[in-house]
Amino acid sequence: MSERDDLARLNNKLDALLALIERAVPPAPTSTDFAAADAFLWAPVPGELQPVHTVNRVDITLLCAISRLRDILIDNTRRFADGLPANNALLWGARGMGKSSLVKAVHAAVNSERDNMPLKLIEIHREDIESLPALMALIRSAPHRFIIFCDDLSFDHDDTSYKSLKAVLEGGIEGRPDNVIFYATSNRRHLLPRDMIENERSTAINPAEAVEEKVSLSDRFGLWLGFHKCSQDDYLDMVNGYVRHYGLSVDADSLRADALEWATTRGSRSGRVAFQFIQDLAGRMGRTLA
């Protein structure tokens, strides 16, 4: 075998070794330009915030039937933005009633009132909860204030990542940074399935303490906002609000009949169903929803 062949084999081995090192040691995160946007998506690998220039949200005036919840959350968010004490918030309850829409709309509404140092919204995916400490370390010393937002938060069997969330919210040695607040939405009030809690009760040496460990996660949220299924009148108010907002010209009686039929075929009434009806209506009318 020639010296050239030996050198080629050595180079191949070095290339393979470098590839393994690159996979094992991710590149250092780049510094975040917080002026790039008011909303960001957390990417735990490589540990950076990705700016979101156009946020998918609706105007806060279109969130009908939840005005009391809207006022509570916007007041809490204003206090936080002004540097005053405020609570982490858990928005829980019926599907399609505007939980995640409210968080994004409140963020935009509070920022519209501020001339400088806008409030930043960071979305973290449910499966990335264990990386929360790294995210906190990244933003702890930043000059801005941040809402960390997790949509559809819940935990399944044998999932221990909820302990990372507990530590970040209240129990860690450093505690939650003063410039951070955590908002989450969930269909569950206690974030954990009932049979998971019952299993802990039946297998633990001290059942009461085991259940307390599970249930206490929700207690880390000082603000609980419950979203319930809407009435027929609330649903029709949502539909009419969208019609006015988008300037759709529709006969009132026909609109009511069509909207109720749409809800019946879906088997539910909610803000999501109302908007889906408006999308169908606008499409049939040849109108765009700008």
Question: Can you describe this structure in just a few lines?
Answer:
The chain is α/β, with parallel strands linked by helices.
Keywords:
alpha/beta; Rossmann fold; 290 residues; 7-stranded mixed sheet; 12% strand
Structure description:
The chain is α/β, with parallel strands linked by helices and about 290 residues long. The protein folds into two domains: about 35-225, 3-Layer(aba) Sandwich (Rossmann fold); about 230-285. Helix content is about 45%, strand content about 10%. The chain contains ten helices and seven strands. The chain has helices at about 5-25, 65-80, 100-110, 130-140, 160-170, 195-205, 205-220, 230-245, 250-265, 270-285; strands spanning about 40-45, 50, 90-95, 120-125, 145-150, 180-185, 225. It has a seven-stranded mixed β-sheet with strand order 2-1-4-5-6-3-7, with helices on both faces. The chain starts with a helix and ends in a 5-residue tail after the last helix. The relative contact order is 0.13. Residues about 205-210 have low confidence and may be disordered.
Give the SSE layout:
Blueprint: H1 3-24, E1 39-43, E2 48-51, H2 67-81, E3 89-93, H3 99-112, E4 120-123, H4 132-139, E5 146-150, H5 162-171, E6 180-186, H6 194-203, H7 207-219, E7 223-227, H8 232-246, H9 252-266, H10 271-285
Parallel strand pairs: 1-4, 3-6, 3-7, 4-5, 5-6
Antiparallel strand pairs: 1-2
Could you give the count of β-strands?
7
* Shape designation: globular
Would you identify the CATH H-level superfamily of the largest domain? P-loop containing nucleotide triphosphate hydrolases
**Low-confidence residue ranges:** 203-211
Can you identify the CATH class of the largest domain? Alpha Beta
Question: What can be said about the biggest beta sheet?
Answer: 7 strands, mixed
CATH topology of the largest domain: Rossmann fold
Give the N-to-C terminal Cα separation: 71 Å
Name given to the CATH architecture of the largest domain: 3-Layer(aba) Sandwich
Indicate the radius of gyration in whole angstroms: 24 Å
User: Helical segment tally?
Assistant: 10
* Secondary-structure element order, N to C: HEEHEHEHEHEHHEHHH
Tally of structural domains: 2
Helical content (DSSP H or I, runs of 4+): 40-55%
Strand content: 5-15%
